[in-house]
Design brief:
Blueprint lengths: L3 E3 H14 L11 H15 L4 E3 L5 H17 L3
Antiparallel strand pairs: 1-2
Length: 78
């Protein structure tokens, strides 16, 4: 079964990584992590996709999403 991520989930993941790795410098440059996810976000918006299969995105962004999913699922456990 292919794992999919929704646009709202991607937004949550971006915000998660923005907190961990905030913009820096006077130009407020995005961190490498946020930039990788922002590329996926931009493509989803451009292509008007509501979901994307994790297997179809670049390895770095996929790993960031998997790490985020693992962290959020473990924080929801009692």
């Amino acid at each position: 079964m292919l794992m999919q991520i929704t646009l709202p989930e991607l937004e949550q993941a971006i915000n998660h990584w923005r907190i961990l790795h905030p913009s820096r410098g006077e130009e407020r440059a995005l961190s490498v992590e946020v930039n990788a996810l922002a590329n996926v976000y931009a493509l989803m918006i451009f292509e008007q996709c509501r979901t994307v299969e994790l297997e179809t995105i670049e390895p770095q962004a996929r790993q960031l999403l998997l790490d985020w999913l693992q962290q959020t699922s473990s924080s929801r456990r009692p």
